């Protein structure tokens, strides 16, 4: 059971929040989630029941102007219209005071020596990133005493699916964009409110995200729903839930729409650059902080475009040798903006999947914030008959998967008894990495991560011909059950790993021993990486 509270900040501002409460451990992580536009913190309230299972305390904070939190004054709204930096600085200070409350008054456990447990994780969902990034953008705003109280405890900032407007990014030129946030006095406010709710919670089929170009993004209205799995999240909620989760349109109009003004957008673009890419700031202000940018392959165009643009800026900055804030980029297959799983039979399942997609697998969140599994991949053909069995087992080397007793291997809830195959549930995680060897070659691998034991075994698996390491990726979720860390290494020339040079190919044709010797040395270096 969670509780509801209102915190009075030193400047008299009230901030409403719900709280799962502290688990009965001494090393739990406090996770503060800040909501986006239209939907308030209640939209995530079902996550509260999951927090103790992940050794976490979950706090859902309502932004200014939303339920229970102090609205902006007329003067503050005018500051937004004018793009005044003081407005964002005030938000940063208020957020810092809110976090300090949990560190000092609620006795949040400190970060442990390897920064894997304890401390605080701050999650900004959607438009909330305009608020959460303010904390990182200006070292002069938060005084030394307040900074020294927060910095040792703040482990990670999660940018969960921010739209372009939260980061101050312009729309790509010459692109026709369906954008119900645009002011249109001819449209009834309630119609706009409903249109925004559907827009942010629908599923989109983007034609070519890999291109990195605007033409690879679906900018139009949501397509007509054919598959029940593609039902907009808002339509999965009851009328009572919609009333509780969403905020009246006049409040949204007064609270958030001034952020879309040109002067404010210019300020937010400057803020994003300062928080992530300004060398002096990132090297001295929260220098130990990890940042994770998460998006979904079926989210809104403005969010996947923000992800694409930030990734490109980050890649270019790294290539130029700039000292920038380390950011992990996580793209969740099949995820939309409001939830990451199916509108499930189990009423908590969509939020359980969101929990995974947010990487609130709290005991790992700083050790390795990682990808969610590939969404709803069915086993077909030869395995179809298994879905009809009351007891079936698939043995892959060391791993035995018992279908009815292990819930992560189950029939899709939308095809329960059609014999269309088995579906691996979307609740396991692994990281993706590229290791640069001493000779300059890159080796790509996926990693289940280290179990929370002191005697686990590291299993390095190398694929064969045609199929790369992804063919075994579903084994990652089973590794911890066998006290193992599973590493799937891609051979040279396969996805992410350096191809062979023409000279190396010629060495193969000639049967040169130094070709195999080189492979042996590269493999030895790879293994040494995990040992040392």
From TrEMBL:
InterPro entries according to UniProt: AB_hydrolase_1 (IPR000073), AB_hydrolase_fold (IPR029058)
Residue intervals of the AB hydrolase-1 domain: 31-274
One Pfam family matching this protein: Abhydrolase_6
Domain of life: Eukaryota
Protein name: AB hydrolase-1 domain-containing protein
Species in which this protein is naturally found: Roridomyces roridus
